[in-house]
Amino acid sequence: MIELYYWPTPNGHKITLFLEEAGLDYRIHPVDISAGDQFKPDFLAFSPNNRMPAIIDTAPADGGEPISVFESGAILLYLAEKTGRFLPADVRGRKTVTEWLFWQMGGLGPMAGQNHHFGTYAPEKLPYAIARYVNETNRLYGVLDRRLAGRAFIAGDDYTIADMAAYPWIVPWQRQQQRLEDFPDLHHWFEAVGARPATIRAYARGEPYRSRPTVTEEGKKILFGQTAANAGRR
To answer: Does position 168 have pLDDT exceeding 80, yes or no?
Structure first.
């Protein structure tokens, strides 16, 4: 059993995508990040960066004590290695998948996240900041579009954790002020991944939590007011 600490954000969706594809048994523990659940001591005990998702694998491959993993990219790698799926065994294939996984973790996710922040949540609409992150998101869409030219998936013919990492960050393309029709190969890939039965199931698992209130002003203070002095002290 995988105990999944989750909220229906792009990073949360990455993990349900894998779990649904692999058919692993899992149980969702909602971590309402707007309410400050990520600061609870029992969560911080295994997710010290006070971010979700995180998992606890109660039946690790070595047969030992449960293993906890935080950071979505690390979780995807852990689950791929645990199951032997969605990560090539050969050195060149694995290299390619990890390159694009880290590209998402270090580029697409952070840049699109800042795009969301300054375009949607910031109390003051700063034209320079909005343009900076909209343009950088656009550049990264272009990188992915070029990569997908002539390929079914990011690493080639096979669906991998690189696709699972990138897809949820393209889902909010409208909020990111992008046009999928400007990126035909990315658009084709996006539609193909979205049509996968496991993708449909994964997003359905998040629906009960989407019905809860959107980010409130108090929630914004929790999400965007963290410093070393107050993180983990709620």
So the answer is: yes
Are 186 and 205 found together in one domain?
Answer: no
Task: Count CB atoms within 10 A of the CB of residue 176.
Answer: 22
Residues 100 and 184 occupy one common structural domain: yes
**Band of the pLDDT at 123, cuts 50, 70, 90?**
confident
Q: How far is CA 62 from the centre of its chain?
A: 27
Burial state string for 17-51 with b = 16 or more CB within 10 A and e = fewer than 16:
bbbbbbebebebbbbebbbbbbbeeebeebbeebb
233 occurs within a structural domain: no
pLDDT digits (tens, 9 = 90+) for 93-105: 999 999 999 999 9
Residues contacting 164, CB < 8 A, separation 6+: 14, 17, 18, 21, 76, 86
Range of the domain at 35: 2-85+199-224
Q: What DSSP letter does each residue of 41-100 carry, written as one string?
A: HHHHTT-TTS-S-EEEESS-TTSSS-EEEESHHHHHHHHHHHHT-SS-SSHHHHHHHHHH
Number of domains making up the chain: 2
pLDDT at residue 220, rounded to an integer: 54
Q: Do 97 and 182 belong to one domain? A: yes
- In the chain, % of residues over pLDDT 90: 85
Distance CA 185, CA 144 (A): 9
Distance CA 221, CA 117 (A): 13
Please tell me the pTM assigned to this model: 0.90
Give yes or no for residue 196 having a pLDDT over 80: yes
